[in-house]
Amino acid sequence: MNDDFEKQQRDPFVTEEGAAAKIDRLRDFLDDPDFEVIINDKNHDLDHRGVVSSALVSDRLELLILNYSIGQPIVDLIPLAKEAFFARERDYKMFNKQTGSIFLWETNGYMQLMWLMGLAVMLDQNSYIPKIASWINHDPANGNDPLVSKLFSRMGVSGVPMGDVLIHTKGYSDLYKVVTASESDVNNGQRELWMESHLKNWYKNAMKPTIWGDWHEQPKIHFGYWSFESGLVTLLYGLDDSSYRDMTFYPKDLVDWARENVDLRKLQPLTVTPKSRYTGYAVTVGEICQETGHYECPRLQGRIVMLMQGQKVLGEKHNEMGAIIWYKLTKEAERDYLENRKKNPLTGNWE
Predict the structure, then answer these.
(1) Handedness of CA 283, 284, 287, 293 (dihedral sign)
(2) Close Cβ partners of 218 (under 8 Å, ≥ 6 residues apart)
(3) Which residues pair with 182 in a beta bridge?
(4) Which are the contacts of 43, defined by CB distance < 8 A and separation ≥ 6?
(5) 13-56 pLDDT tens trace
(6) Coil, strand, or helix at residue 99?
(7) What is the pTM for the complete model shown?
(8) pLDDT band with cut points at 50, 70 and 90 for residue 344
């Protein structure tokens, strides 16, 4: 193996020879103008057009992920990401009834959704986030998922159906614990422990059941194994990744690049104001409050309300500023609010 390749590769299962062969094959397919002709030919068989389009989407995603796996600079991945997301958007617009929708009950579809969400945020393609949500088939018969709903809510997209239970419990239960952690869990560092567990079992429980589960045994088709959702959650929830950043499937270089180059305030109203004002627990309109306390909503001009555990949060789900999310105040912020209200009972933006 070339020493330079070994030093820069990020996925230890990717080989130099295998990666070169796969890139050549992908480029031959992606650069073939005949496939674009087929996709856009309205006189051609619709099912065949959809299959070709879907294949192009998969190949562009694999090319993007493979280039990350072999150690390409993050900035060089952005053009590949733009091409991959454009292809995915076109696929949905043209063939959503055939191949374009994402079905959450499918292990392959669920994994691809994790890729799309994580890569959109970490490669600064945030304009695609609401589009990704629209690509999901939300027919109740096909299942809706609370983890997916909460992640989109955290990214400012409201209205994604919640579902009662995780669709893929085995693969994502620890990650769901991270995004639903209580205040005490946050303070005790439990979220980071759950993330470690998610990463430790990620291949066996999340990747292995997919179509790509054994591709590492075939170097000429393997493009890399990455838990992009772990990087996404780390960024969205402000986790300390020092204890798990060197675990095999964690995309630490993408996370580090995003921390330096992506304005997460576009996704998280929480980061617009000092973090010390909030505990880290938040609840969206339509959800059940899990912790009693005073909550503030930046997108409602800083209105403060009292919410009780078990109470369903009522109101409009979004306004012109985005999703309506209530953030629980810290004890100090709550005390200041109560003292100010006592001194000035006729003024203030509270209820």
Answers:
(1) positive
(2) 18
(3) none
(4) none
(5) 999 999 999 999 999 989 899 988 998 888 888 888 888 888 99
(6) helix
(7) 0.73
(8) low
Task: Give the integer Cα–Cα distance in Å for 302 and 298.
Answer: 4
Q: Which two tokens stand for residue 213?
A: 């589960």
pLDDT in tens, 212-249: 999 999 989 999 999 999 999 999 999 999 999 999 99
Element at 284 (helix H, strand E): strand 278-284
DSSP one-letter string for 309-334: TTPBPPS-SEETTEE-EEEEEPHHHH
End-to-end CA distance of the chain: 66
**H helix or E strand, kind and range, residue 115:** helix 107-122
User: How far is the CA of 236 from the CAs of 219, 227, 300, in angstroms?
Assistant: 33, 15, 21
Q: How far is residue 296's CA from residue 157's CA, in Å, rounded to a whole number? A: 19
Using CA atoms of 328, 333, 337, 340 in order, give the dihedral in degrees to the nearest 10. -170
